[in-house]
Specification:
This protein is mostly beta strands and 122 residues long. 0% of the residues lie in helices and 58% in strands. It contains no helices and 9 strands.
């Protein structure tokens, strides 16, 4: 059985594509445990909540682009498969935290914590 791997990941900000070097998405289902008083002395169920997608992104800082990272809102982040397969897109990405990183290889990177309002597989 041949395995397929995820290819490049691109963050699109105001029609500018930014190369992503590290990406860690985390989905929270929004479900919560409901504790009730009952004779079994255990929880009886859960409530449906609102799903959220928290994204941790490290991107290369483009030299020729002046992006205000802290004010990013409404951006799109797409994972492209290496061969065939479906793309995964996070829509309406907005930034909550920004940090800078410099490496020994003289490469400036930006660390971003963000949320997405929607996730779709295309």
């Amino acid at each position: 059985m041949a395995l397929e791997y995820t290819g490049s990941i691109v963050l699109e900000v105001n029609s500018t594509e930014v190369e992503v070097t590290e990406f860690s998405p985390r989905e929270t289902t929004g479900k919560k445990l409901v504790k009730t008083m009952n004779s079994a002395a255990r929880a009886k169920g859960y409530t449906q909540g609102i799903a959220t997608w928290e994204l941790s992104i490290t991107a290369v800082v483009p030299v020729d682009q002046n992006i205000n990272w802290a004010k990013i809102a409404g951006a799109k982040l797409t994972q492209y498969p290496l061969t065939g397969g479906k793309r995964t897109t996070y829509q309406d990405v907005f930034v909550t935290e920004v940090g800078e990183q410099y490496t020994v290889d003289n490469e400036a990177r930006i660390n971003i914590s963000a949320f997405a309002l929607n996730k779709i597989e295309e």
